[in-house]
Amino acid sequence: MRHPEWIKVKSTGTHETKKLLRRHGVSTVCEEARCPNQGKCFSKNTATFMILGDRCTRNCSFCAVASSMPLPVDPDEPERVAEAVLSLGLKFVVITSVTRDDLPDGGAVQFVKAIHAIRDRNTSIKIEVLTPDFKGNAEALKSVLAAGPDIFNHNVETVPRLYPAVRPQADYRTSVDVLKTAKKLAAGMKTKSGIMVGLGESAPEVFSVMRDLREAQCDFLTVGQYLQPRRNNIPVVEYIKPEVFEQYRIKALEMGFTAVASSPLTRSSMDAGDMFKENSNGT
């Protein structure tokens, strides 16, 4: 399916940012997941760091990140991420990861080390973590929250009915429960989640997911159009019109979300710093 006019993305220069990232030997989800906003973000010297390597133990049909047996955890990775953060001059950082079901804690300790490495260099930097579900391991989740990120993010990605096709190795209720547990363990911390549309879901199904997230006391929500990153990924079923995204935004705010980003090119970590600053007294 050809992209409609409202989804076309203009390319921008990214050479210097990419060169810096290569120098520090860090991965970004911007590149690995082939994000359509990569040029926009790189042109502003910002990126979403992806830790725990670049190989995922799961094989979600929507994702362009490589799925294979991962390499051993790199003990120097958190320090390299922290140095890259300083080199980019970032005041707000998003750290995500591949899913590491091969690790007892799902890779939680690497998130903790990355948070500490950044804060050891600059305590004023705000940090959002976008984590996998850790297979519902509450102790792993607790350790990440104890490290003190400013936002905890975990994406539900799609509606429950589509999980077998879109996230076959994940469980919708587990993802919602991760957000619910995070709020219980760190009541003052902002929580966030995201959903893709255009995969064949209905509007009532999207509203139902929103209600589930609000019941989990989720604060921030992102809604964006799914775009097929590679030919072997699940195809787009429908391109959702901008006015529908606006309807989703209004409905989500009516349900009680503190902040909602909903548009065709919205992505979970795009303009994350602005959302935090504008809606949680961030400085």
Task: Characterise this structure.
Helix 1 packs antiparallel against helix 4, helix 4 crosses helix 5 and helix 5 runs parallel beside helix 6. Strands 1-2-5-6-7-8-9-10 form an eight-stranded mixed β-sheet, sandwiched between helices. It is of the alpha/beta class.
Summarize the structure.
This protein has helices spanning about 15-25, 30, 40-45, 75-90, 110-120, 140-145, 165, 170-185, 205-215, 240-255, 270-280; strands at about 25-30, 50, 55, 65, 90-95, 125-130, 150-155, 190-195, 220-225, 260. With about 280 residues, it is an alpha/beta fold.
Question: What are the salient characteristics of this protein?
Answer:
283 residues; alpha/beta; TIM Barrel; two-stranded parallel sheet
Side by side, the strands of the main sheet go 1-2-5-6-7-8-9-10
Taken as a percent bin, the fraction of beta residues is 5-15%
Termini, distance in Å?
A: 42 Å
- By CATH's scheme, which homologous superfamily applies? Aldolase class I
